[in-house]
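Predicting holo structure, adenosine-5'-diphosphate bound.
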Amino acid sequence: MRLGIRWKLAATYFLLIIWILAGTNLLLLHTLEQDYLGRRQATALAGANIIAASGGPDLLRGDRNAFYLARRFGEQTGARVLVVDRTGRVLVDSFGESRLEGKALRHEEVQAALAGKNAAGAHVLADGERVLYAAVPVAVDGAPGGAVMVVTALDDVYAALAQVRTRLSLVSLAAGLLAGLLAVALAGLLTRPVAELKRAVQRMARGHLDARVPVRGGDELGDLAAAFNAMGAELARVDRMRREFLANASHELKSPLSSIKALAQSLVDGREEDVEVYREFLRDIDGEIDRLGRLVNGLLTIARLEGEERPPENRVEDVGRIVEQVLGLNRARAAQNGVTLRSEVREGTEWPVNRDLLTLVLVNLLDNALRYTPAGGEVTVQAQAGKDGLEITVRDTGVGIPEEELPYIFERFYRVDRARARETGGTGLGLAIVRQAVRRMGGRVTVESKTGAGTAFTILLPACPQAAGGDRL
Ligand code: ADP
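Done. Tokens:
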């Protein structure tokens, strides 16, 4: 089974908590045990010392007095009191058992006491009983002449510890369960955004570009959600633009086709005998076919500009020559329209450019300038290389563009005056192509215009263009 991130997190929390609880419990029990034993040792040693001090060397005589002293103390404290001589032989046993009397004790506490030191230690007897031995020397003329050993049972201590352990275990179990539940809930809370994101990604993969996730909190998951939403919005935008473009393109292609169809149909259906009428209709059809051709060419150019992934190759070119060549193509038309064409490119202006792209841009800008400049006007191309880059301006003294239209003129198929643009042969793709081509060169294009006074399009090609691949739609 695949374990989700939620359960992994929860299991980690849970194990960590259990581990900490177990550790603290063990530490606590150990400390308690040490504390209990320490106290017991102190009490036992104190008792042994009292007996040794109050009995003194008389104890070592092993007579009845010594026995009573030992027994009284033993009865008071519930301990067994033994008195041994210098060799460890038992002289007195408060339990009065004859079994031990006369036997030598070899316990390390007794040995230590006989060497003059107080000593105490816990032991486990053969039958599993836990006892505490505490032994102190009995001084005779300033040297240990024997020892008093107090033996106490530790059952009560261990019973108390066992009780504490049981309670601790119960509390820990409850705490552990609670922690486990909390861990699951917390992990769920933490992983919820991830689960939401996953669902949204799956939805988007199925083509629902409107899938969004709620952005919660300012952490990395919140950032991720915001980034995902931004990506979704961009994808939706691109998708909408593509659909719009397709609809517009179809519409634009359809209108000349309809005209051609209508013109041809009327010739086929009519009983017209006059050849001149035929000629006129065919001229119209020819014009519409030209329009279709321009549209298809424009669309192909856009597709080519968009499809190209690699940045264009640049070569240092004489900008004046390129401008001159494009102007040359337009001289006849300008003369026909009564418009003056001028180039104001400083001699020797050289710049690394892509000749084809730059030509494409200039051809389209000049085409527009001539189309929207009435007779008597002037179209000028200026170019100069500065520290910001190469700046080329195509300026005309034509009809100009209303200010409120300026933001839209670079959009595909956008025409300020639909009817007139169509009359003059515009497709609405010219400036879209210009913008796309300039971006491919890593530059940008701006426009300034005044209605009735003229228009100036300026392209700026930076000195070192940022690589421009496929462009935003
Ligand atoms: P079109 O093929 O219709 O010229 P463009 O994309 O080249 O399409 O231009 C979009 C619109 O911008 C045009 O319809 C026109 O109204 C306006 N325009 C472009 N260039 C000029 C200009 N030099 N002077 C006046 N208007 C212009």
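Confidence is low (pLDDT under 50) at residues 466-473.
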